[in-house]
Amino acid sequence: MMLFPHSGRHGFDQIEPDATVLTPSKDVVVAMLKRETELRNDRETQELLDKIQNDPDEQDGQEQEVAEDNETVEGKEGEEEKEPETLEEARAIIASLRAQLSAASLAEQQQEEQDKEQQAQEEEEVAALSEAKCDREVFEGIKARVVKEFGLGPEYVDVLNSAVARFPGDPDIVASANYIKYNRARQGKLQVGDVVPMENIQLASLEGELSSLRQHLATDSRPVAIVAGSIT
Question: I need a surface site. Which of 7, 10, 85, 207 has the fewest CB within 10 A?
Fold first, then answer.
């Protein structure tokens, strides 16, 4: 139960691609995996996973700066302004000023609308993640956000889940996501009914002292339940 699809595994087996979902180019998949890793490692995600209340004033991210054209019809400093000599020239200058003002106002309005849409989308995505009840929902929400950012349909989450199977043995794919690069989980050789190799299984106490499973069992005659887990 530890290896969920959001880590590219179903049990210990790699998730096989959904044949109905086309494979994007390798560069796109690498970029998607890197973006997913970035969101997974984001401070807010880690705070959410640790069940710590997020502070919206401490959100990370880069603010986009919009360059503005500061040239005016007054001309460069030190240059003399040309006075209109006729009524037609004056009207032409006024019309030009109005056109520039209208264009600047329209550009500003469009930028404000884009900023509002982007902010609303980000707030919606953050709100959706904040309602997650477990880490699985967090990671699945991140994957959904990534494919949306890349302009792909929700079914392309399968590409993230099955990236290793879609590009078998590709080092760039493996290096793109930490949960792929550092995954050491392997299906063991033990089967139901096998004799447990008690000498080879090392246990650590809370004080950091190591002992074999056989040594541990020899000191306690009561029934023993072994609980194993991992931390990432």
Answer: 207
